[in-house]
Amino acid sequence: MKLPQISGLNLIKILRKFGFVIVRQRGSHVRLEKKINEDILKLTVPMHDKLKKGTLSRIIKDSMINVEEFERFL
Q1: Which whole number is the average pLDDT over 37-46?
Q2: Fewer CB atoms inside 10 A, N or C side of the chain?
Q3: How far apart are the C-alpha atoms of 43 and 62, rounded to whole Å?
């Protein structure tokens, strides 16, 4: 499955629909967190106009979101 190029802002909007919350921003990087049971899942998203496909793929994998489920929000 091929992922499209999206911006960091669009990715953050999608991740917020999955329950992630913005906790801070430092420079051009935004930190999001989501509590899962006793664990806290932490992600860092660069606020670039176009994310590299490898970066997008890694963030989706780290977020523990199914790619098909993620694509429904594109």
Answers
A1: 96
A2: N
A3: 7
Task: Enumerate the H helices of the chain as residue ranges.
Answer: 8-17, 53-62, 67-71
d(CA 47, CA 18): 19
* Residue 3, domain member (yes or no): no
CATH number of the domain where residue 41 is located: 3.30.920.30
- Nearest CA-CA partner of 65 in 57, 40, 35, 39: 57
Residue 1 is assigned to a structural domain of this protein: no
**Residue 1 has what pLDDT?**
65
26 falls within a domain: yes
Domain count across the chain = 1
Contact by Cβ (8 Å): 47, 24: no
